[in-house]
Amino acid sequence: MTSDDQFFLDFLSSIPHDVKRYSTEVAEAIDRHVDYAATVVKDTLTVYFPSIVYGSARDARLLHPPKPRSVPERVYDWILRNRAWTAAIVAFFGTGGVLLLGSRAFDQKKRRARRAGNGARKEIVVIAGSPHEPMTRAIAEDLERRGFIVYVVVQTVEEEHIIQTQNRSDIRALHLDLTTTPTTPSGIHPALHGIYSLISQPQSPAPGIQPHTCHLSGLIILPSLNYPTGPVPTIPASSWADTVNTRLLSPILITQMFMPLLTHRNHSNAILFLYPSISSSLSAPYAGPEVAVTRALSGFATSLRQELRLLQFSNGTPCNTDVVEMRLGNLDLGSQYRVSQVTGTEILAWSPQQRALYGPSYMSSIEQRPVASNGPSAIRGSPGRALYHAVFDSLTPPQKSIFGKKKRRKAVVFVGRGSRSYGIIGYWIPASIVGLMLGNGHALSTSDSGASSETGWERV
């Protein structure tokens, strides 16, 4: 092949590349001119017809909406736009979580009475309740285990012997004669000089040990929880007088005697009134003595609470004695404190006319009662631990608020199953509906009413 032929072939092979390059340059030039022309036309139309041009753009966006964003993406964008609010919310919930965990830790900590610097017991609690009552013995033993010095008010030698048979050195009998009064209303009762000496003068457990002064933490008023029941005409006057004297008048007199000791040093202490609340909340029939006494005791506690809150000492400090009403429901203190009860036997002491008139409705009301009147297995009660914790928390000084402000003890504490719920029912539900719950308007036979009444109250 000659050199001319080779030159001709190279020329033919370069033609496609030149054509491609020229065509690309021409296409780009055309695109630039077309884009320029479109821009000029759009700008001209925008000047004379702005609504048409922008309206078409909005229509185009509506025809092709953007892809919806997920919730995490929107939350993330909100956090980036509102960093200050985000920091405030995190601080609020973080602080709340810390306080909640702290309160739970406080509730779960062991409840123990404070001790003196030398390790001796210094907290004194007085229980004004009969040692024959299971609840009195249970509370006394629990407080003694938690480190208190417990005094139980006794009236007879037999009650003092019951305290001595417990064989606990820090559960002591306090023989208090209510017929003996101090020389002045504000004076100290002769039987209380021993306690007064403990809280006013330093005491040394043994020679060579640093002395300490005891502190009267509180007074627990616990009248008997057993009241006479039945129609008003069948309850003799002696029963009414005994009920009022032992469950209302005696607690008032004991409270009056202890007031000089409770306000002696103006330390934080409490007066606890414990009484059953279910029958009084519902105004239950055939429970006149219990309803009358518990409501009177509640009124006295409320009046005393207001009186102590208005009290101020000579240095201007308010009184630190709180009054706490502990309204009891159904409680199960354990098998060792259970006492078998036989209900309905009091009907045998009625006259034949009274038995015929009140007998059917009274026996029906026994089955309808929402309290454990048929024995400890009739209605399940709250464990005794709930009562022990409530008593301890009411005796000990309350914790300060998060702002450092001193708080008062709760005025009313509900303890036991049904105490709060039946209180709400008695306050808000109409009396006619409560009467139907209690069996008013029809007398159930004793053979088929037991299971139905219990089921009804458990459903409530």
Automatic annotation (TrEMBL):
InterPro entries: DUF1776_fun, NAD(P)-bd_dom_sf
SUPFAM superfamilies assigned to the protein according to its UniProt record, in alphabetical order: NAD(P)-binding Rossmann-fold domains
Pfam family name, one: DUF1776
Superkingdom of origin organism: Eukaryota
Transmembrane feature ranges: 84-106
Record keyword Ribosomal protein present: no
Gene3D superfamilies: NAD(P)-binding Rossmann-like Domain
Keywords per UniProt: Membrane, Transmembrane, Transmembrane helix
Protein's recorded name: DUF1776-domain-containing protein
Lineage: Eukaryota, Fungi, Dikarya, Ascomycota, Pezizomycotina
